[in-house]
Amino acid sequence: MNIKQPFHIVLIEPEIPPNTGNIGRLCAATGAHLHLVGKLGFSLDDKHLKRAGLDYWPEVKLQRWESLEQLQDEFPDGRFWYLSKKAEHNYTQVEYRRGDFLVFGKETLGLPEELLDKVGQQALRIPIFSPAVRSLNLANSAAIVLFEALRQTDQLEE
What we know:
Layout (H helix, E strand, L loop, with lengths): L7 E5 L4 H14 L2 E5 L9 H7 L7 E5 L2 H7 L5 E4 L5 E2 L10 E4 L8 H7 L3 E3 L12 H15 L6
Parallel strand pairs: 1-2, 1-6, 2-3, 4-6, 4-7, 5-7
Helix pairs in contact: 1-2, 1-5
């Protein structure tokens, strides 16, 4: 797969090492870049993180950022989509472009309300059909949205 403008997965303060490890593996498999923002709930040397990512970590294009603002300042022309169960618009209702940033919040709290209020229609949700389920797993959510973006930009053909 030749990715000229890769997608970016942004995790804000992830807390669970295996989720980040699985997302790292997802990024290695698809050519997406992984951005970890703010305080992590684990060390990058964590054995569970390494185990979930297997031996693919050398293939992951990983960057650390102190804040989301720092990341956005580095990519002033970047298009950012913010995933939250509180958003009105479905993740399939937008047209993704190569190089877009897909932003996910921490497992226990998601993205801050203030941020969601600020970004408006750039906030997207993955529908959940059962009222008994509060949220989807972070790694699953990243995969769902990334593969929709890849599909829309004709990057699923080898």
